[in-house]
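subagent[fold] <- orchestrator: predict structure for attached chain, return tokens only, no commentary.
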Amino acid sequence: MPSKKNVKAKGRTTRAADKGKRRELVLVRVFVAIEAMKSAGLDLASVAGGTYNEVTPRRRLVYTTLADFIPDVAPYEVVAMVELHPTAQGVRLVVKEDAMHDDLWTERSTMGMDSSLDRLVKFLGTRPGRRATTR
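subagent[fold] -> orchestrator:
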């Protein structure tokens, strides 16, 4: 189980006034990252597996994955933690993940997690009988 020391918080916070500019910046970063991955000969999609270290139903999930797909870098473990916190409006989701071996790969990992969370928000917002979800 990871301690709070070795788990680095990832995520983003934006004020409503900054959202338009932030989205544009994110799209530029995604395009640059895709082009960099293509030029490095990396796949744009991957399958990840891991080990669940802690499962607390409806509260907390901690898992470890193996970063074994990075050229010229020895495989290493990455620990992630997902927490669910009930709120008056619904549920607050907190995701924390270890930093990767360098800033570029940490940014790529963050963009991948952001993309997954964006798809989750879209899915939850389109389910019948569910309240729309906002970030």
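orchestrator: received. Logging for downstream: The chain has a mean pLDDT of 74. Residues 22 and 28 are 10 Å apart (CA to CA).
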